From TrEMBL:
Keywords: Glycoprotein, Glycosyltransferase, Membrane, Transferase, Transmembrane, Transmembrane helix. The chain crosses the membrane at residues 34-51. It is a single-pass type II membrane protein. It is found in: Membrane. This is Glycosyltransferase BC10-like isoform X1. InterPro entries: BC10-like, Glyco_trans_14. Pfam families: Branch. GO terms for molecular function: glycosyltransferase activity. One of its GO terms (cellular component) is membrane. The keyword Magnesium does not apply. Its main location: membrane.
Length: 393
């Protein structure tokens, strides 16, 4: 009996210790389970986020990563031509590039889908095969215009040697030879982007907020000259572009056949995407301090009106008669631009050095471009060498 009591006493004294150890094991097991479940939930959430991310977002990240290569060698200017079909002034640009080092430039052309630049469609060998294979149908005043611009920039960014990116239309002409334009653009660490406050036309749509705040809304010419980092910002954007597609649309033009329906149509919100997208995007990206807030492409604007049209500004086309050496000299002599909405005068500079404002001009007819060739604006050229050749279909 005494021995049994001793054993019972001994067992009873060990019981609290065993219970305490058991509780610790249970508590530790519980914490391990909580940690494992938390980690599992985090992994699941990240996986869901990855799946729900827009494919374009993931693609843009890969593109940005793929461009992070060390570049060595002479930097190039990427000339990005946004054209309807062919390039009517190819003979002028051919002369321009003929007098340049081929290692200092690249050419990319966005034309209508299926159009190819070859011996039958262009006078200049520099444009052979330079069209994008993934081009889209572009409609003026719609977001397809800025999508085409992004396609050009995206293609040009694949070459790490491209350090400057100039967007040009099919009616643009160079006002100087290649050497001058190359030195001008390469000397500046900034992009040339016409950008100012839009306080008169009311193109900002209130529903753009909060994605695009009104104080970041900008307007300007679509003809831009960019440094590489700004080109990457534009191509990698997946936030601002969807808002533009949805809310920045051109109001339908007046149509006499629609009669009173025009009154209703003209009440629709009016927004021209290509005059706002790049400017607003760079403003929202806090890049305005890295810009020369002006374009390097000259345009003359004429105001016209008809019975069925509201007054509007339209670019004037230069003909042979008004593309005289004196007129070209006047354009080259412009050294500042006034921005009335901001009470700002932009004195034209590159790398703190005062320079003429414009390197290119539009809209030029074939006759006007021929006169520039004859006057040697783009460089030495014998105009008679192309007069005998018929224009491509």
């Amino acid at each position: 009996m005494i021995g049994r009591r001793r054993r019972m006493t001994k067992k009873s004294s060990l019981l609290p210790i065993l219970l305490q150890q058991s509780r610790r094991r249970v508590i530790w097991s519980g914490w391990k389970l909580v940690i494992i479940l938390s980690m599992g939930l985090c992994v699941f959430a990240l996986f869901r986020l990855h799946l729900s991310s827009p494919p374009e977002t993931l693609l843009s990240r890969r593109r940005s990563f793929s461009r992070e290569v060390v570049f060595s060698g002479p930097p190039k200017i990427a000339f990005l031509f946004l054209v309807r079909r062919g390039l009517p002034l190819d003979f002028l640009w051919g002369s321009f590039f003929e007098n340049a080092d081929t290692g200092n430039f690249s050419i990319y052309v966005h034309s209508e889908p299926g159009f190819e630049f070859d011996e039958s469609t262009t006078r200049s060998r520099f444009f052979y095969g330079r069209q994008l294979k993934n081009s889209i149908q572009v409609i003026w005043g719609e977001s397809s215009m800025i999508e085409a611009e992004r396609l050009l920039l995206d293609a040009a960014l694949e070459d790490p040697a491209n350090q400057r990116f100039v967007l040009l239309s099919d009616s643009c002409v160079p006002l100087y030879n290649f050497s001058y334009i190359y030195s001008y653009l390469m000397a500046s660490p900034r992009s040339f982007v016409d950008s100012f406050l839009d306080v008169k036309e009311g193109r900002y749509h209130p529903k753009m907020s909060p994605v695009i705040p009104k104080d970041k809304w900008r307007k300007g010419s679509q003809w831009i000259a960019l440094i590489r980092s700004h080109a990457e910002v534009i191509v990698d954007d997946v936030v601002i572009l969807p808002v533009f597609k949805k809310l920045c649309k051109r109001r339908p033009p007046l149509d006499a056949s629609k009669g009173k329906l025009n009154i209703k149509l003209q009440k629709q919100h009016n927004c021209i995407p290509d005059e706002h997208y790049v400017q607003t995007l760079l403003s929202m990206s806090e890049r305005e301090g890295e810009l020369e807030r002006r374009t390097v492409t000259y345009t003359v604007w004429n105001q016209s009106a008809t019975k069925m049209e509201n007054k509007g500004w339209h670019p004037k086309t230069f003909s042979y008669a008004n593309a005289s050496p004196q007129k070209i000299k006047e354009i080259k002599g412009i050294n500042h631009i006034d921005y009335e909405t901001e009470y700002r005068t932009e004195w034209c500079r590159t790398n703190s050095t005062f320079v003429p404002c414009f390197l290119f001009a539009r809209k030029f007819s074939r006759g006007a471009a021929m006169r520039l060739l004859s006057d040697g604006v783009a460089g030495p050229f014998d105009a008679s060498s192309i007069l005998a050749r018929s224009a491509p279909d």
